[in-house]
Amino acid sequence: SLLRREDWRAAASALLYLGTVGAMAAVTAGWLAAQSVPHSDAVHDILERHEYFGFSVLTLALLLSIWRLWRGARFGRFERGCHFLFALLMAGIMTVGADLGGLMVYGHGVGVSVVRVDPENHHHHNAPDSHEHSHD
Fold first, then answer.
1. Is there a contact between 116 and 94 (Cβ–Cβ < 8 Å)?
2. DSSP 8-state symbol, 106
3. Sign of the dihedral through C-alpha 39, 41, 47, 51
4. What does each of the 136 residues of the chain score in pLDDT, given as a tens digit?
5. Angle at Cα 63 formed by Cα 57 and Cα 67, nearest 5°?
6. SS3 of residue 74 by DSSP
7. Coil, strand or helix: which one is 63?
8. Exposure string for 67-104, b = 16+ CB within 10 A, e = fewer
9. Element spanning 4, H or E
């Protein structure tokens, strides 16, 4: 927008539309997973906030896409600035939502099967400096 490159604006529009379709798929898959994955009360609060952020991103993506389709190349400077600020807001919300999703999976193990290790037959890696060296 700052460089007034029409080819970049077309690419940005295509990425916005593709991202909106991706957000639809992600929200649908996330909603279906939330209905079926077992989770604790503590995780339920995180899941609800994650869901709220996902729906917020989808709503903003849809609004920005519709706005872009409706106005096309007729965006004025103020309108471009507003569109850009809403896109930044959407990216920020998406970042927080993704962090919550990571917290559920990596912090609480939601949706991850437990790996069981047989104590008699397991593989262990030692750190390089933990090896004992003999000085014969």
1. no
2. I
3. positive
4. 666 777 888 898 999 999 999 999 999 999 998 888 887 888 889 999 999 999 999 999 999 999 999 987 677 788 888 999 999 999 999 999 999 999 998 988 888 877 666 677 766 666 665 555 545 4
5. 145
6. helix
7. helix
8. ebeeeeeebeeeeeeebeeebeebeebbeebeebbeeb
9. none
